Amino acid sequence: MTFAALQSLADRAALFTALRQDALVTATEELGDHRWDADMTAGTITFTSHADPSRQVVTRAHLVATIAPGPRSLLWAWAHPQGDAEGIAAQLRAHGLEQGIAELFDPELPFPADAPADESWIAAAAHTVGGAAIEITGRSPYYSAPIGGGTRAVFLLDAPIPALTVAAAVIALPRILSGLALADARTAVWDLARLAGWNLTWADENYSGASVADASGSAMFRFDEQARITGFEGSLGAQG
Predict the structure, then answer these.
(1) In angstroms, rounded to a whole number, what is the distance separating the alpha carbons of residues 185 and 21?
(2) Which of residues 128, 158, 188 is at a domain's end?
(3) Which domain holds residue 24?
């Protein structure tokens, strides 16, 4: 476990987050072997092909937090010397104040006492922070950048990737679901529709299924009594 209060937020956005991270990976993999460079003054992260430096994916990057093994803490960007006190991270602080979530409005969070604070734990914590930020702000994808000494910086990106449509999700979801453990799949589907701006209709009063639709197509999710996804099918094309 990383930061429990943040994990519950990340869990709600888990399905949407996975699809948006997959789209970012697809965009950067098209560059082949590549590097990333951050320009904090310009507020950008640029992914550049090694083979052809003219091929780039340029994103607007919003610092959310840094996670450092030395002090064993997470520092929110609104409290960071290089952060923006009025920027995207401030939305997380405002949400924390509104909802009474101290982990979002305390400037610095100590790691849990039993946290190993190794590379894998910090990477998992960055994933949790990125998912929580997506859940609160609706912006996506995020990027977890190693910045030296075992520290990671978490950014929300305005990236040149297409908006998430039902049609795109229908293609990607079988692969995504096969490798994704959802804490509450029914809630994750509902939140996927909310964050993507799709229409959602529950199948019945027992919430045994949910259909989602937009102009590109429709999909049906079926759930068992433990709210796990037991079936998924999609149909492409404009919905009348």
Answers:
(1) 18
(2) 158
(3) 4-158
Residue 84 shares a structural domain with residue 56 = yes
With beta carbons less than 8 A apart as the criterion, state whether 62 and 45 touch: no
Alpha helices for the chain (secondary structure H): 4-12, 14-29, 88-99, 102-105, 119-137, 166-178, 185-196
User: What is the spatial distance between Cα 173 and Cα 167, in angstroms, rounded to a whole number?
Assistant: 10
Name the one residue in this structure whose structure tokens are 């840094």. Answer: 66
The CA distance from 33 to 15, in Å, is: 27
**Which residues in the chain come in under a pLDDT of 50?**
240
Q: By C-alpha distance, which of 156, 132, 163, 151 is closest to 45? A: 156
Do residues 170 and 135 share a domain?
no
pLDDT digits (tens, 9 = 90+) for 162-210: 999 999 999 999 999 999 999 999 999 999 999 999 999 999 999 999 9
